[in-house]
Write a sequence for this structure.
């Protein structure tokens, strides 16, 4: 059934820990920060293509849901990534499949403070697959708008593995006993005004020239609605119109001809306005896009998206000693952190930190709120994003932002993050070494 064991992807995009010691002494090993996202296993029913001549496969899928913002406000848009770590099905044919011919699509189930499902789609990107070999891990992404405060749970849903090599084949896999276990929980707080408009697609992928059904709710009653293809923030040549009924709902069809189309939106008015529209919902063109003229050769290249990661120059910091009876600032410098955002998408990142209490001899302690920092962030030349340093002030047990970059049309780059540290030691603190753990988390 194509199970591949021992392989798990990290749920948090990056996390590290520093041991900070006062009085010039080094402390023990680094500690990691826990994350709410977990990999889950669930029974799955997969139907191989008829050409394979094999019966349906009942197996186990291992998957994980992650988000770009685990504490959004009402009205925020959250990007959700559904990673199938181990698929229940395998390559159904004896023919080996080359790299970059798999196009996955799927659904994520939403429950709790709000309910529904999220359409997710992945890029045409995969490692080579041997004949009858296990499908490699793959990821799919989509977005949803937070409409209610409270706990929102996300669970893996049905998914489809489309392969386009010699022939177009689909292997749909459904959750046998839905819903699957919860993989990610987010906590939403109250926010601003919510755009109630939303759309759903009848399919998340198709060949160039195929129509896709677009249904919407929450639009202005009787308003004309434009359906359009998008490639990032740019509009493609795909467009159609529909009209909302008396309840603000509509159903229309958009024929997707442009291979560049990666998403579909619907909006009121003459031009795309996120305040008067919904989407983009991800859509992948799996095949087509025109014939190569006689005497010509079609050249195709690709830029592969990477990951968001961080490295730090060390895991221990020795702060300067202070005198008993005088106290004052015990100073030092954060080990330099290098953040590399090679995802090539629209999402920015945030690097935060929080610290434990500093424990000393005989149970003596200095509270976490006594540690402050003054962050600095530098952007490498040529980076699409520009990082902003967090505010000077207290780190504490609740945490603070060390550095961040905003969302944008195209984000990414390399960034160097530093900070001056100062622990405010009371005058008559018992002599000895005091140790706390500063944990950094990149999301």
């Amino acid at each position: 059934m194509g199970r591949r064991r021992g392989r798990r992807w990290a749920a948090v995009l990056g996390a590290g820990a520093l041991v900070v010691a006062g009085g010039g002494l080094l402390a023990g090993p680094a500690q990691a920060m826990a994350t709410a996202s977990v990999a889950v296993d669930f029974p799955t029913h997969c139907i191989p293509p008829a050409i394979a001549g094999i019966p349906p496969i009942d197996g186990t899928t291992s998957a994980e849901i992650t988000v770009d913002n685990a504490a959004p406000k009402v009205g925020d848009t959250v990007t959700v990534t559904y990673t199938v770590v181990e698929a229940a099905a395998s390559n159904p044919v004896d023919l080996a499949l080359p790299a970059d011919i798999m196009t996955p699509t799927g659904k994520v189930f939403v429950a709790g403070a709000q309910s529904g499902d999220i359409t997710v789609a992945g890029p045409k990107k995969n490692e080579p697959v041997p004949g009858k070999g296990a499908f490699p891990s793959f990821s799919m992404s989509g977005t949803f708008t937070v409409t209610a405060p409270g706990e929102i749970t996300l669970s893996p849903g049905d998914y489809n593995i489309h392969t386009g090599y010699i022939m177009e084949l689909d292997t749909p896999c459904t959750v046998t006993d839905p819903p699957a276990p919860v993989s990610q929980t987010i906590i939403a707080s109250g926010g601003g005004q919510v755009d109630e408009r939303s759309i759903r697609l009848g399919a998340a992928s198709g060949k160039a020239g195929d129509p896709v059904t677009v249904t919407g709710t929450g639009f202005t009653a009787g308003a004309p609605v434009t359906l359009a293809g998008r490639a990032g923030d740019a509009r493609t040549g795909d467009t159609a119109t529909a009209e909302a009924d008396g309840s603000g709902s509509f159903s229309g069809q958009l024929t997707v001809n442009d291979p560049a189309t990666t998403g579909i939106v619907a909006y009121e008015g003459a031009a795309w306005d996120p305040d008067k529209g919904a989407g983009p919902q991800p859509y992948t063109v799996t095949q087509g896009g025109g014939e190569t003229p006689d005497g010509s050769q079609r050249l195709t290249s690709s830029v592969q998206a990477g990951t968001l990661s961080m490295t730090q120059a060390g895991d221990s910091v020795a702060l300067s000693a202070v005198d008993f009876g005088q106290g004052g600032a015990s100073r030092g410098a954060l080990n330099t952190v290098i953040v590399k955002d090679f995802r090539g998408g629209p999402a920015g990142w945030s690097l935060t930190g929080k610290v434990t209490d500093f424990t000393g001899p005989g149970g003596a302690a200095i509270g976490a709120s006594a540690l402050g920092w003054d962050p600095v962030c530098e952007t490498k030349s040529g980076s699409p994003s520009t990082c902003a340093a967090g505010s000077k002030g207290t780190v504490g047990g609740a945490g603070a932002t060390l550095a961040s970059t905003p969302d944008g049309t195209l984000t990414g780059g390399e960034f160097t993050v530093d900070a001056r540290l100062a622990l405010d030691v009371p005058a008559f603190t018992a002599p000895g070494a005091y140790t706390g753990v500063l944990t950094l988390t990149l999301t």
Remarks:
- The chain has three domains: 37-194, 208-285, 308-442.
- The two ends are 34 Å apart (CA to CA).
